[in-house]
Design a protein that fits this description.
Chain lengths: 261, 335
């Protein structure tokens, strides 16, 4: 599969130019007395596949939630391209070109696979809102993406009846329907078998070659080291290391964080 | 199969044609009255279902909009001489604007909190009509002038107006169900956080759905007030009206276009017959008990409503085997 692979409006075609960096500066977030993020700063370069790793509870998902508008950060700024994301609703963040998936797969289980694909379209304006749901360009694009991920034959099945792996793929495919510039994946390889993980990696590479930027939280180090560069390590809400996979692997602070101090 | 498909597509038009000629065939008041109120409840229940069924937000406030619609139309008629058949859709628009305002506040809550906020709205509206005596007549209510028609024909325009309201409700519900907006509402019902993360502006969707939903209640309230030539706070804000809408929707099936319609066409005539057949001192209480029994039975044995239960039963039948196309793909690797 190549980056320009899809003739039917697959993932390569509608992605915007990879011109927007995600810049996070001094972002903090606490829950009661627990500090999840403490003046965390990092940058995701446009066109990269950046990994965000760290031990459990290091603040990775909290950072995702701050960027995507699910949490309000208590300090600092999040900027995507020229736009500050502070105060935006999650849907507003999506419309800017940032889509995400969740640590625990979230799909609309009582809707069909195709309906799941149509929900995330950029819906702006009343006129668009009241046009037929599953029709025209969106339908073609949805079909193209389902083909790309090999689940097109399930288009009319209820999403809840899909296997775990298929649901993961559906979540990823649906996130692509919003035509994001930056896709944030929260543990995409979690719970998948090795064959599936390899193929998922191939899909991500293909999409990246088409211009899409990725920020990936992942515990599967093999997957991260093969696929991602740079790798950013978070510990206790702060960035403790970043660099190429080899640099991060050799960093004593990272070893400390993972093995305990 | 072809015949079945034609039947499936044609029956609503056949039913509509039948209802259009009923007043000529059965001019008897009781049956026309029964049908007219069934249309009214069906239209309001379809409207309620846009919010309660598609978006999954159970509102007890629809009777508030029904009551305010009754009063608004009555006041426009009494003070400005504007006929209800002209003002009813505009009163509906007023209800929608009010609904959007209420939605802006109440739709920040969910579940029981939303139910309580909408119920509170109904009681506040009722208290206002009781207290603003100089405008609303207080507990004595308002009397509306009769239509200038022979007594036996008075029901006819209301019959057709309510039928039109039902047709509009069904068409709007179908249009919503097929649209991106409808998919967004169902997504909100399924997982609101995920819907928001998918780019659905959930607040806007919910407010718009609520505004559309209460238009039917406001418009029906306006027509209802003129039909009875009277409106008072007890009659206009009777909570049983909203409960009826919910039971009808649950009975037929929430979130399905025809679910609330079926519910209304079963529940209202049953209810009316009970009131008609039972001794008058028992009728009021017993038909409420019957409604309660229906609600319990539906929740226990058909929680998805009659239509979905029937569809599920049919799918399990031997004639509806749908093999999943075998395909060597990524999905298989997914297990």
């Amino acid at each position: 599969m190549s980056a320009a692979m899809n003739q039917r409006g697959g993932p390569a075609r509608p992605i915007s130019e990879p011109d927007a960096n995600l810049v996070i500066r001094s972002v903090s977030k606490s829950f009661g007395g627990i500090t999840a993020l403490s003046e965390c700063s990092l940058e995701v370069k446009a066109g990269s596949i950046t990994a965000l790793i760290g031990p459990n509870g290091s603040g990775k998902t909290t950072l995702f939630n701050c960027v995507t508008g699910f949490y309000r950060q208590e300090g600092g700024t999040v900027q995507f391209g020229d736009t500050l994301l502070a105060g935006l609703r999650p849907s507003g963040v999506v419309h800017l070109g940032i889509a995400r998936t969740f640590q625990i797969t979230r799909i609309f289980k009582k809707m069909t696979v195709l309906e799941n694909m149509i929900v995330p379209i950029r819906q702006l304006g009343l006129r668009t809102l009241f046009t037929a749901g599953i029709k025209g360009y969106e339908r073609e694009r949805a079909e193209g993406l389902l083909e790309f991920f090999g689940i097109a034959f399930l288009r009319n099945e209820l999403a809840g009846s899909l296997s775990f792996g298929q649901q993961k793929l559906l979540e990823l495919a649906a996130a692509l329907m919003a035509e994001p510039k930056l896709l944030m994946l929260d543990e995409p390889a979690g719970g998948l078998n090795p064959v599936m993980i390899d193929r998922l990696g191939a899909y991500i590479r293909d999409l990246n070659a088409g211009g899409m930027t990725f920020l990936i939280i992942e515990h599967n180090m093999g997957f991260v080291m093969q696929l991602c560069e740079p790798v950013i390590v978070l510990h206790r809400g702060r960035v403790i290391a970043s660099g190429t996979p080899a640099e991060v692997r050799a960093n004593p602070a990272v070893l400390d964080a993972y093995l305990g101090d | 199969m072809k015949i079945e498909r034609r039947l499936r597509r044609g029956w609503p038009w056949a039913a509509l044609a039948l209802f259009l000629v009923v007043p000529f065939a059965i001019p008897e008041g009781f049956y026309l009255d029964l049908l007219m109120f069934t249309f009214m409840y069906a239209a309001m229940s379809v409207g309620w279902d846009i919010m309660g069924g598609y978006a999954g937000y159970v509102s007890l406030g629809h009777v508030g909009f029904f009551g305010l619609g009754s009063y608004a139309a009555a006041l426009l008629l009494v003070h400005l001489g504007m006929p209800v058949f002209v003002t009813a859709p505009l009163v509906g628009v007023m209800a929608s604007l009010l609904g959007a305002g209420l939605g802006f506040i109440s739709l920040r809550t969910r579940g029981p909190a939303f139910v309580i906020v909408t119920l509170t709205f109904t009681y506040v509206a009722q208290l206002l009509t009781l207290d603003l005596k100089s405008v609303t007549g207080g507990s004595q209510g308002l009397f509306l002038p009769l239509l200038d028609l022979p007594a036996n024909l008075i029901i006819i325009p209301f019959y057709y107006a309510m039928l039109a309201l039902l047709v509009i409700a069904i068409l709007v519900s179908i249009a919503i169900r097929r649209s991106k907006f409808g998919l967004g509402l169902i997504a909100i019902r399924e997982d609101e956080g995920k819907a928001e993360a998918s780019g659905v502006n959930t607040s806007f969707y919910k407010i718009l759905a609520f505004a559309i939903s209460v238009w039917f209640a406001g418009t029906a309230g306006a027509l209802h007030a003129q039909y009875l030539n009277y409106v008072d706070p007890d009659l206009a804000f009777e909570l049983i009206i909203t409960l009826n809408l919910i039971i009808m929707s649950l009975f037929g099936g929430r979130g399905i276009v025809w679910g609330p319609v079926l519910g209304a066409f079963v529940i209202y005539p049953l209810s009316a017959y009970l009131v008609f057949l039972l001794p008058s001192r028992l009728a009021g209480q017993l038909h409420l008990v019957a409604l309660g029994v229906v609600l319990v039975l539906v929740v226990m044995f058909m929680p998805d409503g009659v239509i979905r239960t029937y569809q599920a039963w049919r799918r399990k039948g031997p004639n509806d085997y749908r093999p999943v196309e075998p395909q060597a793909s990524m999905a298989e690797a997914a297990g």
